[in-house]
Amino acid sequence: MSEPRFAVDRGDASEQVAAEIRRYVLRNDLSPGDRLGTEQELASEFGVSRPTLREGLRMLASAHLVRSARGPGGGIFVAGTAAEGMSRSLSDSIASMLEADGVSLRELVEARIYLEVPIAGLAALRATGETGNELQAAIDDAVGHHGASQPFLAADARFHRILAATAGNELLRGFTSWALDVLQPSLIAAIGGEVDGEAILGQHETILRAVRRRQQRAAERAMRTHLEYLSSVLEAHEGRMAA
């Protein structure tokens, strides 16, 4: 007889259900779209009632880790990895704080500097030749577009996501996703008309050169210069609005 996938002690069974499913997904390196089973199958494996199982699944769904589907072939599916779930939850929380004036754009830009500067350094240390090609392609896709246009913003976001992925640290990658999901749209809404797209492309080129040369400190300096440019544009904008 094969070992059961899950084991739940007594106590708060719904929390244990959620924790066991998290561990199972990580342990088996499951991906979004992988099927875990039906509610009936999972409740039977856990030895819990379906209401208890549903509460555990609700916790996971709120963290964007699982989803349910009805009909033939339906059931419970992996919606995202733990890192992706953390990233989305963090982005949702920061978006709520920004909307409620619990945090300012200036604070978010400052936080981004402290996160993305070391990420650029790690990316330089861990880059491959293909990394440089991907970063160059992102820069090329932004050329000829206004700094607040959708094509430019999409290419800009891709440039930063490539660096975060190359850094090779899933926690840092998750922690910084809010910068592109939440901060960038809000920042562009505020200062898009004042951003110099050519200046940003030049800053990206400087970051790219440091990454190609595997120069950690140079990549960090270049990223700091890039983000401090955005901070200075925001500061000038806020000064004009306050005048």
Summarize the structure.
71% of the residues lie in helices and 5% in strands. The chain has 243 residues and is mostly helical.
Layout of helices and strands:
Elements: H1 13-27, E1 35-37, H2 39-46, H3 50-62, E2 66-69, E3 75-78, H4 82-99, H5 105-126, H6 129-142, H7 150-167, H8 170-191, H9 197-212, H10 216-242
Antiparallel strand pairs: 1-3, 2-3
Helix pairs in contact: 1-3, 2-3, 4-8, 5-7, 5-8, 5-9, 5-10, 6-7, 6-9, 7-8, 9-10
Describe the structure.
With 243 residues, this protein is mainly alpha-helical. The protein has two domains: 13-80, Winged helix-like DNA-binding domain superfamily/Winged helix DNA-binding domain (Arc Repressor Mutant, subunit A), CATH 1.10.10.10; 83-242, GntR ligand-binding domain-like (Four Helix Bundle (Hemerythrin (Met), subunit A)). The chain is 71% helix and 5% strand. The protein is built from ten helices and three strands. The protein has helices at 13-27, 39-46, 50-62, 82-99, 105-126, 129-142, 150-167, 170-191, 197-212, 216-242, and strands at 35-37, 66-69, 75-78. A three-stranded antiparallel beta sheet has the order 1-3-2. A hairpin with a 5-residue loop joins strand 2 and strand 3 (75-78).
